[in-house]
Amino acid sequence: MELNIIHVDMDAFYASIEQRDNFKLKGRAVIIGGKSKRGVVSTASYEARKYGVHSAMPIIKARQLCPHGVYLRPNHQKYKEVSQQIREIFYQYTDLVEPLALDEAYLDVSANDKNSIKIAKEIKRKIKSKLKLTASVGVSYNKFLAKLASDFNKPNGFKIISPFKAKDIIFPLDVSYLWGVGPKTEDKLKEMGFYKIEDIAKGDRNSLIRLLGKKGYQVYNLAHAVDNRKVSPPSLPKSIGKEITFKRDTKDIIVLRGYLRDLSKKVSDRAIKNNVKGKTVVLKLKYEDFEELSRSKSINHYIYKEESIYDLGYRLLNKLNLNKNLRLIGITLTNLVEKNVEQLKLL
What residues make up the catalytic site (predicted)? Predict the structure, then answer.
């Protein structure tokens, strides 16, 4: 079994970004989650965790534990931008990237000729040198073990779990470490006498299936270090479009240009949100008599910015002879790819 699965988990991601960007926060207990008494902690720096502060904790409780901490509202746009920069590093090695959140992802590097351990170390080093952030990285032959490995030695950890050592590592662990085992399943397992992963591995599979149904089969396999889930990149939308029906029918080109620009901005915003770009723009029109017309234009490069989408849409509109009023106009960006996918570089 090849060690082709890498799990990258950024350390205290939101708080680390704030500490990086403001030298006054270095070494201080930083809690992200806002200042409202009803808020919850999104991320706590490792300095804050020493006082018992953790994610999902009510802010009011965090303040009791760590009254001297620095409490900040989250800057989601900044965190998304940094997350995208991290993914750009991933895509230098593989296009099989499965983000779990802004701060973690699985990578399958089986198509890369380089040694996976070397790749993992390079990714970790690039994140540190380019973004001044640390990541904990796990390498193994399946997703369960790779994620488990990244949890060892945090922060700034690095661990490999090989097929030869997998059972020695996981057997002594509590059953809660198994993927998909939440508090309710954990309670059921322990009621049946399964406390450690080894207990499940040496137990009766049929008993687990009777207890947990289909999940029992999954839990039994995981206890034997078997996980056949593939690294699955998120599927892309086929197209992104917006349209508007007018309050009054019109063929005034100035009015239509105004609508077209507004729609182009909305399409651009959605393309950015979905991290895609396209090279075909489709203009849709509906006349006052409900007759529909569409025209498209493809170019040899990818676009996602408002001005580029509008420019193609307007060129299509300008070619038409509008001899009757319109009741609707729409614009769509299609022929999409992920914005940051580059040709695989076997560095």
Answer: 104
> Alpha-carbon torsion 44, 50, 56, 59, what sign?
negative
- Is residue 104 part of the annotated active site? The answer reads yes
Q: Which of 104, 198, 288, 338 does the annotation list as catalytic?
A: 104
Mean pLDDT of the chain: 93
The answer to whether the CB of 335 falls within 8 A of the CB of 278 is: yes
The answer as to whether 232 is a domain residue is no
Query: Can you tell me the distance from the alpha carbon of 250 to that of 232, in angstroms, rounded to the nearest whole number?
Result: 47
Q: Is the pTM of this model over 0.85?
A: no
The predicted model gives 94-111 an average pLDDT of: 94
Using N-to-C axis directions, what is the helix angle for 205-212 and 214-223, rounded to 10°?
A: 140
Do 247 and 317 have their domain in common? yes
67-85: average pLDDT:
94
Which amino acids are annotated as binding site, given as ranges?
9, 103
Q: Domain range spanning residue 60?
A: 14-76
pLDDT in tens, 104-115: 999 999 999 999
Query: For residues 123 and 133, what is the distance between their CA atoms, to the nearest angstrom?
Result: 12
